[in-house]
Amino acid sequence: MMLTEEEISALLLSLKVSLWCVAVTLPPGVLLGWVLARFQFAGKAVIEAVLHMPLVLPPVVIGYVLLLAFGANGWLGYWLAELFDIRVAFTWKGAAIASAVMGFPLMVRAVRLSMSLVDPRLELAASTLGAGRLRVFLTITLPLAAPGILTGAILSFARSLGEFGATITFVGNIEGETRTLPLALYTYTQTPGMDEPAVRLVLISLAVALVALVASEILGRRAESRLLGE
Amino acid sequence: MLSLDVDINRGRFRLEARVEFEEGVSGLFGRSGSGKSTLLNVIAGVIDPDRGRVVLDGETLFDSEKGLCVPSHRRRIGFVFQDSQLFPHYTVKGNLLYGWKQTPPRERRFKLDDVVDLLAIGHLLDSHPRRISGGEKQRVALGRALLASPRMLLLDEPLAALDQSLKEQILPFMRRVRDELGLPMVYVSHSLPEILYLTDQLTLIAGGRILGSGPLHTLLDAEQIRSEDRLGLDNSLAVTIESHDAEGGCTFGIFQGRRLALPFRSALMPGDRVYVSVHRTEVALGKSFVEGLSIQNQLPGRIVSIDSAGDSVQIVADVGVLLRAEITQRAYRDMALREGDAVNCLIKATSFSYLTLDEGDEKAARSLDRSVIEMTSQVH
Lengths: 230, 380
Hints:
B: Rossmann fold
């Protein structure tokens, strides 16, 4: 099966967007997951509600809100362009932002769950052994929550690979810039006589998803057995 | 020396503790829910009291008035938990070295090899905590705490999760740590025999209050402590061993000038002080001295109080100390007992049980390799 240049470009773009999406959301996702798992504070419910918005809102809404915020006249977009000369609307960076927003709640939920399963008494034990807060977090909490963090990263990656609505609304469907696999597939389905390339994209999508899932399964098992000392 | 004067008020639970722990091993004894673990957490800096001061060797660790609180990781107070809390993602060796690595080299007091020898855990170093037994876990937890070079060691029911035979295997190690490292320790337990195996210096706690501190025999002199139901020390006696009658199957002890026949225990030496207790249902009453009886002990005294509410009757007799007897309503009626009556308290030798651990443990302790291990620097 030979892929056309267009299809290869869509595949590489999808991978690039998804990897950036995970890289950008991982640090804040881990931090927020930890805060939600370990602390009680006023306004926690509000944060959780806002966090879960992308799961319940139609993706088009998210995409449009992003467009309003990051567009040339949006306050974030204006600020980014003025200060750093970065333009995200209608670029692949915008596609990464769109999938990051959509995948963020999934990542935080997974991190939060795994962090809340780490026995706080292990952290206490580490602190009585002379470890400060940061060290406790880095040597006890983080490694023990690693399988959950990995799950969160995979979920976010997978969500990003499939992201469609928010992306097309926010950054459009520009070949070579924002036309990821789902967008390319959509384009083919809208064009008469393009069934064959459409099927090829379906197969590519299947292959990518399969590789990602198998890899996550293997990594997850490894992390777990290392943790439990088996 | 550690001194505490702290209050905690958490709704239904209140702790008001004013207590000092001297050098050496102090036992903190109380039933579950008495506040002993909370007190330990306050010392370790895990729980902040609402009010008060905690001072260790002249250094203030907590002072509510000055708004001072040294965080737990800077207190250098070792903590051994009931369920060891070993880090599952580290090997035994990694666990042992966790605190050691955080300690600046010049403040390190023990070497890994020495602690490993002391606790006999050399064969476990490469294992994961999951793969070792409960008793081994506690030894590793103890070693891990020691290697962090603490100024004092807190042990929170370290043997409570283990079965009896394992306890007996681990207690000698605790004694070794006591004898060879000279580290101040606070040992919390609801088991008096466990504490007495390590120390006679006790602090008694019930309902969030300290009831007294000192050697157990002086604590037992205080009627207010003996009558405290939540401690369960009623009918506990401090006895000095006098002699053995191996053929007669008993050991004689002296209690307040009276000779008591006790269960035979050859490991005890004449002159040893031991604690025995007898359950109140095992104390029978007679109106006068009874001849021709298999019961070996008859303690004459006088009835101080009678509580006949309930199915059985609680009688307190003064036989030098106050002894409690529980008899049936029927016996009470038949005997027509009244406050102030003279009675004899009848107790079988075998109804006494020793509060100190039995012979087997003593032997285990002695059979342990007693060779003194050279520590990098001796602690005092």
